[in-house]
Amino acid sequence: MKKPVQIKFLGMERSPALEAAARAKIDKLEFFCSEIVSCCTSFELVHKHQQQGRAYSVRIDATVPGHELTVSRVCDEDVYVALRTAFDGMKRQIADVAQQRHVRDGESLKSLPQDGTGRTDS
Fold first, then answer.
1. pLDDT over 50 (residue 88)
2. Taking the domains of the chain in order of start, what are their residue ranges?
3. Which residues contact 42 (CB under 8 A, 6 or more apart)?
4. 35: Cβ–Cβ under 8 A, 6 or more apart, which residues?
């Protein structure tokens, strides 16, 4: 990654465990797509209700050549579930960009794996 990874905490204290989990997810994204230029992950405590648990929101902004990708407002009472869901969404967006790039470069869709990873076995 050309720019350093940014991890922000809004309305909540910084958590080393949560930051480590986010960095691990970012490393997996980078393994999946080595062309990621930058990635910013934000955690936010959005609601404080007495009857319901706290809701956490995760937002991911990533840049790949020619594309700005965003997954925003993924909310859950479990911040780790929100983190996983957000990174699953980002992985799908990166796979879509990779698929578009393969089609644009003249490769057929049949040469891409059907699991949506954007990687070939060779």
1. yes
2. 6-108
3. 7, 8, 9, 10, 57, 58, 59, 60
4. 64, 65
